[in-house]
Structures are given as C-alpha cells and as structure tokens.
UniProtKB/TrEMBL annotation:
Gene3D superfamilies: translation initiation factor eif-2b, domain 1, Translation initiation factor eif-2b, domain 2
Any one GO molecular-function label of the UniProt entry: S-methyl-5-thioribose-1-phosphate isomerase activity
Broad EC category: isomerase
An example Gene Ontology biological process: L-methionine salvage from methylthioadenosine
Protein name: Methylthioribose-1-phosphate isomerase
Organism: Marinithermofilum abyssi
Catalyzed reactions: 5-(methylsulfanyl)-alpha-D-ribose 1-phosphate = 5-(methylsulfanyl)-D-ribulose 1-phosphate
Length: 361
C-alpha cells in the first residue's frame, strides 16, 4: 500500500492494497464510511464519473491505478494487443471528467513513461504503470505538505478562513491543498476558525470539508453558499483559500461552481483570495479560462439532491459543476514550488518547470 508522507487525521480517499484499489465512497459521507474494493478499470471510471472518488488530484491518482487494473491481465507475448489497448484505455479513463487537468496529466505522464519502455516485455510494462501510479500517489502527499507550508506564511494564528467545496485530504492522497495549511496550523497549536461553504448542489463542503475538519478537531463552521457575503461583511473572514481543478496559462482558475462568486465577494470586501494549486493543476497548454472545458452534470443533482425532490417535474436546469475565476480576482496561487501572482505568466512557468519538483527529486 502506498503510505502518504504523513497520516492525516481522517479516512484516506484511496489506498492501493497490492491487488485492488480501496476507494472511500465519498457519496456516502459523512453518514457512512464505505470502502469500495475496485478491481477493474471500468469500476475506476464509474467511480470517477459518479463522484465516489472526486477532487482533482485524487481522480488523477485513481485513474492511473485504473490503467494498471485494466492492463494487468495481459501476458508476455501479447505485446501487440497490449500496445493496442493502452491508448484506448487512457482515452476512456481520461473521458471520465473534462475539467480537472490532473486526470489527463496523470494519465499522460504514465503513458509517456511506458512509451520509453516500448521494447520491454508486457510484465515490465505493467510493472512500470503500477510504479508510476504509486509514485504519483506518494508525491501528492509531499506536494500537499509543501503547499501547506507556503500557505501558512500567508496566514496568522486566530484568523477566520473561508473555503469552498472540498480541497482537503478527501480530494487528494492525504492532507489536501486548500486545507493543508489548516491541518499544519492545527498541529502547531494555532487557533484558526474555518467557515466551510456547504457548496451546492453536491455539498462537498458540508459532507466532506466539515467532516474532515471536525474529525481532525479543527474549529469549522458550516454556512450556506449564500451566506459567504454576510460572514465577510461581518468581519468573520480575513482570508479565503480554495483548491482548483485547472489553472490556465494566464492565471484564470477553474474550480467548483460558486468559487467565482466567492472571489468577487472577497474582492469587494478587500479580503485576500488564495488558490492552492499543485503544479499538476496548472495547465500551460490552455491559454485562458475560456478554453477550460466546464463539466455539466445531471439536472437531478439540483432537482432531486440526495433523493428528495425539491423542484417541479420537468423544470429546465443548468448545472455546470465548475466556474472560472479570472486571474484579476486571485491574490496569489500557492504551489508546492512557491507562491506566484496569477498574472505573472513567467512566474507560473517557473513554478511548473521548477527544477526542484517532487517528481524530479
Ligand atoms: C484539490 S481538489 C480540487 C477541486 O475538485 C473539486 O471538484 P469535485 O468535487 O467535483 O471533484 C472541487 O472543485 C475542488 O476544489
């Protein structure tokens, strides 16, 4: 099993068990902790599509384990069939969700690694896929810790912090991105007061962020999304920190729907708005936020959330799962290689191409 660099104080989103992938089914949280035993690529794809596993880094990690699970039945001597199936399966897993660039980043990284071994046996190729999955999994925990360390330099003991959606341990291998500084601050005895937006329609904030932080003993207050402006106006919040699914080359940020509204409110109240972003979420190949594909999800997430009808039958619904916050509303992007102004294109390139990236250590 891949051990994260540190053991977070809550259930892990995913664990490799040697011959299957254990996924904490996040659709059942917070009421039930159900662990799925995943043994096929199709099961991984379904888990990503239906948010049993979610969060940009976590779906990238899960997808590469899925690639291994989908290729592991090939035998030596079946090299032609192996090389025919690999790109098809990469594309199939990559199509599970369009917005989080970590999904394609993890799959492309693994496919590129395996490509360098084209002359090897099927057994060696399969071993290389699994080794890359475990490396990406392991690196994520270290990346999150470093994001937490940098983010902590922007926070002060006693601050009120608002966050949106879940960019915590349940969205990553261990500690999370936006939540990483909160866990580190807690370990250092700081008293931060976290305001978690419930984050309609799938409620990642109330079901996951509030769950994680409460489990860890942190001071978390749950609010409805439409209360974010009020808590800012009342002086309860001194900083906002969120995760991201994709940062474009010009610093525009795609994140859970509602993030743009929070960013505009933060700007209106003179509150710093930070985005915690592993460099695997920074996509220099996408020029601006306008080119980031925004996933639209089923109307039922809004009209019949968690099985209770709350809208008239047949009503028209618009359900984009993400929105784009223009760089001008982002105070800074916090990565594992440093803190950068989103409008500093050279700065974004620098942190992404940083010689000290975890992968190159
Ligand atoms: C560090 S996770 C980033 C991102 O992923 C979440 O989306 P979803 O729950 O739909 O996978 C949310 O946008 C988080 O901020």
């Amino acid at each position: 099993m891949t051990q994260p660099v540190w053991t977070p104080p809550h259930p892990l989103s995913l664990e490799w068990k040697g011959d299957y992938l254990a996924l904490l089914d996040q659709r059942r949280l917070p009421a039930e902790k159900v662990v799925l035993q995943i043994t096929t690529a199709e099961e991984v794809r379904e888990a990503i599509v239906h948010l049993a596993v979610r969060g940009a880094p976590a779906i990238g990690i899960a997808a590469v384990y899925g690639l291994y699970l989908g290729m592991r039945n090939f035998q030596d001597g079946e090299e032609d069939a192996f090389w025919q199936e690999l790109p098809r399966l990469v594309d199939d897993l990559n199509a599970a969700r369009p917005t989080a660039v970590n999904l394609s980043w993890a799959l492309k990284r693994t496919a590129a690694k395996v490509e360098t071994l084209r002359s090897r046996s099927v057994e060696e190729l399969k071993a290389a896929i699994l080794a890359e999955a475990r490396a990406i999994h392991r690196e994520d925990a270290e990346v999150c810790r470093r994001i937490g360390e940098y983010a902590l330099t922007l926070l002060k003991d006693g601050m009120g912090i608002l966050t949106h959606c879940n960019a915590g341990g349940l969205a990553t291998a261990a500690y999370g991105t936006a939540l990483a500084p909160m866990y580190l601050a807690h370990e250092r005895g700081w008293k931060l007061k976290v305001y978690a937006d419930e984050t309609r329609p799938v409620l990642q904030g109330s079901r996951l962020t509030a769950f994680e932080l409460q489990q860890a003993g942190l001071d978390v207050t749950l609010i409805c999304d439409n209360m974010a402006g009020a808590v800012m106006k009342e002086g309860k919040v001194q900083v906002v920190i969120v995760g991201t699914d994709r940062v474009a080359a010009n610093g525009d940020v795609a994140n859970k729907i509602g993030t743009y509204s929070v960013a505009v409110l933060a700007k209106a109240h003179g509150i710093p708005f930070y985005v915690a972003a592993p460099t695997s979420s920074i996509d220099l190949g996408t020029p601006t936020g306008a080119e980031i594909p925004i996933e639209e999800r089923a109307a039922e997430e809004i009209t019949c959330g968690f099985g209770k009808a709350t809208a008239p039958e047949g009503v028209q619904v618009y359900n984009p799962a993400f929105d784009v916050t223009p760089a001008e509303y982002v105070t800074a992007i916090i990565t594992e290689n440093g803190i950068v102004d989103p409008r500093d294109k050279e700065g974004l390139r620098r942190v992404v191409l940083h010689k000290q990236t975890i992968a190159e250590k």
